[in-house]
């Protein structure tokens, strides 16, 4: 399983790129798994459904399975830390490629998404783990390769070139190496 992150500031187009990379990689005969970090609470369950009633009644883990899909929802205790990226990667079923959206401060290899209109600086100079930048503008001072954000096939090539094997990465992914806050933009101050 080759693992690579798709990272960038909010609004850069990470999810859009991931949803384009999945069929591009699948079209090459590869199986693709994805992971998405949510900074805020989220829910995959629907109120009133049996699985939600199990959770509401206090079920710490609820597994829902059918002939087509399996979902596991685990409630963390109030004093329980968020699982490490390594622990979460270890739980994934086998796939050829794992696209990890988010987890900027972790040590896995990444492709940074940069969109000029977003108003935030590119991450390639901030994160040592960035192997390439997918950008909508040229970045002449970039210290890593820059790929046109619209060239999904070239970005898919970079995913395969720069992704690293999960089992090699797991020891380094037990804790983040740094935390990042989005820099203020001029219009944030107005």
Word description of this protein:
- There is one protein chain.
- By secondary structure, the protein is α/β, with parallel strands linked by helices.
- It has one domain (2-39, 77-180): Rossmann fold, CATH 3.40.50.300.
- The protein contains five helices and nine strands, in the order βαβαββαββββαβα.
- The protein has helices at 14-26, 50-56, 85-91, 152-162, 166-169; strands at residues 2-7, 32-36, 61-65, 70-74, 97-101, 110-114, 130-135, 146-148, 164-165.
- Strands 1, 2, 5, 6, 7, 8 and 9 form a seven-stranded mixed sheet that branches. A two-stranded antiparallel sheet has the order 3-4.
- A hairpin with a 4-residue loop joins strand 3 (61-65) and strand 4 (70-74).
- Helix 1 (14-26) packs across helix 4 (152-162).
- The chain starts with a strand and ends in a 21-residue tail after the last helix.
Summarize the SSE layout with pairings.
Elements: E1 2-7, H1 14-26, E2 32-36, H2 50-56, E3 61-65, E4 70-74, H3 85-91, E5 97-101, E6 110-114, E7 130-135, E8 146-148, H4 152-162, E9 164-165, H5 166-169
Parallel strand pairs: 1-5, 1-6, 2-5, 6-7, 7-8
Antiparallel strand pairs: 1-9, 3-4
Helix pairs in contact: 1-4
CATH class: Alpha Beta
**N-end to C-end Cα span:** 46 Å
Q: Which shape, going by the Cα principal axes?
A: globular
Architecture in CATH? 3-Layer(aba) Sandwich
**SSE-based structural type:** alpha/beta
Number of domains: 1
């Amino acid at each position: 399983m080759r693992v690579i992150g798709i990272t960038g500031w909010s609004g850069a187009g990470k999810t859009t790129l991931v949803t384009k990379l999945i069929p591009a990689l699948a079209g090459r005969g590869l199986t693709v798994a994805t992971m998405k970090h949510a900074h805020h609470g989220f829910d995959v369950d629907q109120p009133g459904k049996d699985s939600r009633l199990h959770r509401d009644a206090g079920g710490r883990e609820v597994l829902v399975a059918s002939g087509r899909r399996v979902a596991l929802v685990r409630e963390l205790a109030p004093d329980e830390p968020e699982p490490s990226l390594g622990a979460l990667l270890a739980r994934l079923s086998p796939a050829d490629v794992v696209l990890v959206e988010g987890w900027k401060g972790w040590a896995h290899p990444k492709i940074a998404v940069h969109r000029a209109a977003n108003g935030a600086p590119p991450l390639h100079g901030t994160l040592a783990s960035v192997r390439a930048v997918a950008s909508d503008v040229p970045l002449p001072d970039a210290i890593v390769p820059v790929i046109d954000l619209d060239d999904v096939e070239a970005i898919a090539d970079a995913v395969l070139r720069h992704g690293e094997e999960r089992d090699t990465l797991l020891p380094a992914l037990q804790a983040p190496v740094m935390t990042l806050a989005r820099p203020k933009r001029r219009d944030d101050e107005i």
